[in-house]
């Protein structure tokens, strides 16, 4: 144990996985350094609500160092990791000297991916960071502002057409909330057109939405979306994204706002380590989440490919990342105490949730499936419960309650630049 | 009256003055077009709290069109006015066709000014817009992050030195809140240094701070600032601002965070109109706030120079702008109804308030002067009362209450860019 105190555990990334690892190691006699490119932990499951002006940024993100403030053996550093030197056992940084580690935990997450069409990104942004979310919010709100300037319906149509590509949980949540924004929240705010004339189109290459759920639940979700006024286009791969619209099944669809929710790729951790990876760039880790041949380097969360006990890979969701972070902490503790290592990591699926707008959701706990209003309340309570910090729970709850009863959304701000520059930003 | 309905009143700028004018004209049979470069009305008196991470942006700014939603004769447009054609009676816009007016109200506000040293702006930003505030917040928080990287006190010193130039209300409020941030809120968040070692320096060229108040009140405010740990340097004109510090009385003071609160200049409305202006670029308006020789063009708020009844110019504060907006609406109504014009505009001073950190403030109602904790509560209640929209009042009140009891600040987010780019942003 005495030697433990000298051990230096470096954690890269303060997402769900990295933060959980740091917290479980807090009591352990090791020095911990947490490095993140941003100063805040982001509650990504609610990021789409920032993008759709339902929540202000400050209510789903918190300074990492204040989250870890109580853990005296944790030092938090704001820095950009650019690589790992396996031989020297150091982490390489942008503009700072390398940092040596005894044990390394890489929890660097994922970005959205365009399947070899990175040129689409400026026209079809994805939502992974606070900046993504505020950019998308600006784009959505600006489209309505621009429509108010147009003199006829033809001119307005492209500004009032919102396309979401990809019908996973994020795509469905975006489509549902944008539909509510257009048909409910913004209604009456404009003089030259009816916001209900806006089209919200959810495009999916596969045969159904929310493929991660059972067929009956995804069928229900599709009906719920249509009730909100969302047009669902299935089996429609997108062949091009441009500034003024997309190409779908050979036909051009004019739309000034296109959002990407179709896929993610892991952070470059695999390249840093020159470790074996899957097609999405995720490191293929050992059953104890360490890198093959590197027992002191662990990879967790969206950056890791973990073959589950049942052969099915562990999904890239927050609960999985948290469980992996906690598990790695156990492994490190066991080694310090000279105890036998715990068995291989096993993911416990606590259930799948997805929400469709303000009053509908689907929940699959395995032993029970729920849908509709009750499911929505379960979804809301679960998310508020998981939000870190009492105050934020309260603030988010108040916000949702307010939106729920009044239909108003608080965070409808177009920040950065004035109208002129915003127009150019389009 | 019947002809009234065809009259087109264009208001440029949805600040306190423009918004008040629109609201008072709402019932009147005229068409009103509100044009602003931004989609939100900003409660500027609290902007410094965003800059110092006390309030999130969404709680001091609200979409203009939702504020005016109920007024059916008001159309809100997001657009950048670039000039006025007096002859054609049109407003010129960036990227949109000109808009014709019968009556024009210019309420385009002011920006901070560098007295012929615009090259100082990147090193000493001022706080006038939400973007200014978030940029400054990023800079302040990033300075502490950077200090955590430095290996010795000498390297940390410039990052932990915060200079505020100008000791008017904004400068005092910034200095007091940054001192609290360093000495209280952030305390214990860092491992390599004590945030209380940070220096907060308030620099003023004049002989005393808060010159707008009586000598005893500004003396009290200075003592209160010093209790918070702020160093006050009086009679010290700044002769240079650089990336790494400022030159003060011939000596170089290393500081990585320098904020500008020393002066403002009016928007270019005077140039648009080729109208007589004062040194700060404010249009010298007639007693009825119209432009000399242009009875149908009014200028109000920080863009107007109004010689008060007592000869003293009307101050550039929110209550004055609101009173001017309401007054111009009265003038327009009287003309429509063929009634005699109201007397010349007379500013009613409701009192001056300034706050020094969390528990001290000074209040001068003329008939009574207050200072200390009671004054702070009056300041807080007054500001919450004037915040538009019940929900925001509630949210801000909750926020302040939270900060007051817990010392935590909710909005400590460094957004835009990762550490690497943020560093370059320095």
UniProtKB/TrEMBL annotation, chains A, B:
Which reaction is the catalytic activity of this chain? Answer: a quinone + NADH + H(+) = a quinol + NAD(+)
What UniProt keywords are attached to this protein's entry?
Answer: FAD, Flavoprotein, Membrane, NAD, Oxidoreductase, Transit peptide, Transmembrane, Transmembrane helix
Give the matching InterPro entries. FAD/NAD-bd_sf (IPR036188), FAD/NAD-binding_dom (IPR023753), NDH-2 (IPR045024), NDH2-like_C (IPR054585)
Give the residue range of the signal peptide.
none
Enzyme group, top EC level?
A: oxidoreductase
Membrane-crossing residue ranges in chain numbering: 374-390
Q: What are the FAD/NAD(P)-binding domain coordinates in residue numbering? A: 8-325
Q: Offer an example of a GO molecular function term for this protein.
A: oxidoreductase activity
**Domain spans labelled External alternative NADH-ubiquinone oxidoreductase-like C-terminal:** 351-402
EC numbers for this chain: 1.6.5.9
Query: Where on the tree of life does the source sit, at the highest rank?
Result: Bacteria
UniProt record similarity statement: Belongs to the NADH dehydrogenase family.
- Protein name (database record): NADH:ubiquinone reductase (non-electrogenic)
